[in-house]
Amino acid sequence: MRILITNDDGINAPGLKVLEQIAAELAGADGEVWVVAPAFEQSGVAHCISYAHPTMVAELAPRRYAAEGSPADCVLAAIYDIMVGQLPDLVLSGVNRGNNAGENVVYSGTIGAALEAALQGIPAIALSQYLGPATAKLDDPFDASRIHGAALVGRILDHGNWGQDDDYRLFYNVNFPPVAADGVRGTRAAPQGRRRGTNFGVQPYTAPNGRRFMWAVGGAQNAPAVSGSDVAANMDGYISVTPMRADLTCHASLTGLQASLQGKPPQNGAEQ
Fold this sequence. Notes:
The chain has seven helices and eleven strands. The chain is α/β, with parallel strands linked by helices. It has a single domain, classed as Survival protein SurE-like phosphatase/nucleotidase (Stationary-phase Survival Protein Sure Homolog, Chain: A, 3-Layer(aba) Sandwich). α1 packs across α5 and α2 (71-82) packs parallel to α3. The protein is globular. The N and C termini lie far apart (60 Å).
């Protein structure tokens, strides 16, 4: 198996080293692991691509590249330049330092890389390690993802629905709970949740020269979420696995919306 790995924490991030171990175990002795990751941290860039300016790509070692761009840029660079003629069988993104469950999904560069791979028709899985008081006490905060990662990805590869015949292919979002590996209670297939009563925001800052800046700040990561969601599963000690796709349509609303839009469009501002 040929596996491409990337992340949004940067080429030197400890979580990427964990993912290299996971990928090497999955690829086997006859497989290949390629690394194309951002040269610098790209957290919070979501599915951004560097459309308006070029991206420099540097080869650091055989099958190891750093790109001065986003995680989605890295996937594009791999597919259309670095790995042309030897495309990956699988793209893995992560292991992110911090969870990408709940509302974090829409901001995540880790998710953005997996989403881009799916748009390109390649199976993809995003992996993230939830952090908390229990992981802060560990020598290795990635203990749960390091120990359980390869086996779980193997199960998803064997049993997952990849939506090959769909316009928008599926990819999978995996979050490991904020506990040590021996504290993981199991795995749950779970929908994306929403932490209630908390949001991203900004903290304004005035520099010594009088110029005004701001820092983006996240909400409380231990805020409650609906039972059965990815956030709730992680907080209960379970690994969450969530199938996702790029299609943002609310299909449940289409029928009702269509009924309300029947008839001729209004003319000159008058309803008909």
